[in-house]
């Protein structure tokens, strides 16, 4: 399954189940991920991050650990919040 197909499923499911504006809304051009080792925190990030090799490495780790059908209902990244924030901060400055 291609990365864009993997991401489309959770976004579609989240938008269908959301009947009102709230935490499940994802702006156009973004996607939601869950990050954390024990407790998961939701982040909404730009699709452009998919083009960066360091982010693609995280996606590969997520696939290895969780596969494509995770109980959270969205893409889960298996790393610490601090690492994820450092990575996305550096991607946002490029």
- Could you tell me the number of beta strands? 3
Could you tell me the strand content as a percent range? 15-25%
Write out the strand line-up for the largest beta sheet, numbering strands in chain order: 2-1-3
State the distance separating the first and last CA atoms: 28 Å
Q: What is the rounded Rg?
A: 13 Å
- Calculate the mean pLDDT score and round it: 75
Structural class call reads alpha+beta
What is the N-to-C order of secondary-structure elements (H for helix, E for strand)? Answer: HEEHEH
**DSSP helical segment count:** 3
Which features characterize this protein?
disordered N terminus, three-stranded mixed β-sheet, 94 residues
Topology:
Layout: H1 3-17, E1 30-35, E2 41-46, H2 53-66, E3 75-77, H3 81-93
Parallel strand pairs: 1-3
Antiparallel strand pairs: 1-2
Give structural notes.
It is built from 3 helices and 3 strands. It has 94 residues and is of the alpha+beta class. Strand 1 (30-35) and strand 2 form a beta hairpin. Strands 2-1-3 form a 3-stranded mixed β-sheet. Helix content is 45%, strand content 16%.
């Amino acid at each position: 399954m291609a990365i864009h197909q993997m991401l489309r499923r959770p976004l579609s499911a989240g938008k269908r189940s959301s009947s009102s504006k709230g935490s499940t809304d994802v702006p156009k051009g973004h996607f939601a991920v869950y990050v954390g080792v024990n407790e998961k925190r939701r982040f909404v990030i730009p699709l452009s991050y998919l083009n960066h090799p360091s982010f693609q490495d995280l996606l590969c780790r997520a696939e290895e650990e969780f596969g494509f059908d995770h109980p959270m209902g969205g893409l889960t990244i298996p790393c610490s919040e601090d690492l994820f924030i450092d990575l996305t901060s550096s991607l946002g400055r490029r």
